[in-house]
Structures are given as structure tokens and as C-alpha cells.
């Protein structure tokens, strides 16, 4: 469609792929972003804190010993 040579088409494809890879966040940045999102969702304003009494209540009447 653009009437470019095969060599130029491959060169452009490689340049586009390199640019796409560089625009991605690295693994550390992805991890930090994920942790921030979790922290925002886990705000203490959304419910009571999880304490020993709450955890114990999860196992009451479960039949586990």
C-alpha cells in the first residue's frame, strides 16, 4: 500500500516494535502500580479492621478442629 521495499518495511516494523517495548512499564514499575491500586482499594474507611475476633468468627461452627 505504501510502496516501500521489503527492507524498509522490516526496518519500520522493528522500529515500531522497539518503540512499543520502550513505552511499557518495567516489572518494578508494574509492581509498584499494582501495589498502589491495592492500597487504594483496601482503604480502612471501607469496613472494620480485621482482628483476631473476626478471624475466629470465620472458623466458628465450621466443624474443623
Q: Tell me roughly what share of residues is in helical segments.
A: 55-70%
Count all strands and give the number: 0
Assign the structural class, choosing from mainly alpha, mainly beta, alpha/beta, alpha+beta, or little secondary structure.
mainly alpha
Classify the oligomer.
single chain
Mean pLDDT figure? 84
Radius of gyration: 26 Å
Low-confidence stretches: none
Tally of contiguous helical segments: 3
How much β-strand is present in the residues? under 5%
Characteristics:
rod-shaped
Write structural notes for this entry:
- This protein has 65 residues and is mainly α.
- Helix content is 63%, strand content 0%.
- The protein is built from three helices and no strands.
- It has helices at 6-23, 27-41, 52-59.
- The longest helix has 18 residues, at 6-23.
- The model has no long low-confidence stretch (mean pLDDT 84).
